[in-house]
Amino acid sequence: MRVRRISAALAAAALLAGGVALVPTAAYASLSSITCVGTSEVAYSPPITPALQLVTATVDADYSACVAVLSGAITSATSTSVTSTSQRSCANILGVFTAAFSIPWNTGQVSAGPATVTTTQLASALQVVSAGTFASGPFTGNTFVYTVTYANVDAVTECQNGGLSSLDNGRVLLQVTPL
Hints:
By secondary structure, the chain is mainly beta. The chain has helices spanning 2-16, 26-29, 155-160; strands at 33-48, 53-69, 80-88, 95-104, 110-122, 125-133, 143-151, 164-177. Mean pLDDT is 83; it is low at 1-29.
């Protein structure tokens, strides 16, 4: 609130003096946040198997609800479909790797930044957590945590017994917060 009062005071002083005030918006951007929930599905072609091979993953995400605070015109994330190709096998389904992360917003703008992606098997659920800091677009400098939980999946067992061809009904939680 102090930033808002100082900015308002500067603007009022400049207007009284007959000038034009340029109030920096970075102070407001650093306070903005958004939380979204939704669903995710992944299709692997060809399926991930014990043999190391080039696999294309297509990830579809839909966001059903977002709550935004001080984010201006941004009120929600838009549905996405992302395709990536990499060497995959049962041996590298779980673990930690880095990836580029981006999220499109209802305004047409895109926030992007590097992410550390951690994939773990938690009892009968597979959890994928992407975390990092946005380097460009709205929310630049804010941290993000994108968590997808796929219930009733034993990814390694499926991979070793015929191949992992898809992950369905993932529950998404996207949290963007100030540092």
